[in-house]
Design goal:
There is one protein chain. This protein is of the alpha+beta class. Helix content is about 30%, strand content about 35%. It has 2 helices and 4 strands. The protein is globular.
Length: about 90
């Protein structure tokens, strides 16, 4: 196990991203993860609209290979104007 990370890689990692409920938001989140992790690493993708359907939560579960990979995904998503929250 890496001293810098509580995770043991590779591991299944659920990433939750919230943004405005727009048609391309889910696809954008999936493409960012696919770019950094590869298509073969993708698992499930679930979406959930907010109560008033103004916002959309997208959860992508994928196989994370390293802490650096997770950092790259978080960096890419956190600078996007489409993303409001990232867990």
């Amino acid at each position: 196990m890496n001293e810098e990370s509580p995770f043991e890689f590779p591991c299944s990692f659920p990433l939750k991203v919230m943004g405005h409920n727009r048609p391309a938001f889910e696809q954008y989140v999936v493409e960012v993860v696919r770019t950094h992790a590869g298509s073969q690493s993708l698992g499930s993708v679930t979406t959930r609209p907010s109560r008033n359907a103004r916002y959309l939560s997208v959860t992508v579960t994928f196989t994370a290979a390293s802490r650096a990979q997770l950092d790259d995904i978080y960096r890419t998503l956190s600078v996007s104007d489409q993303v409001l929250f990232l867990l």
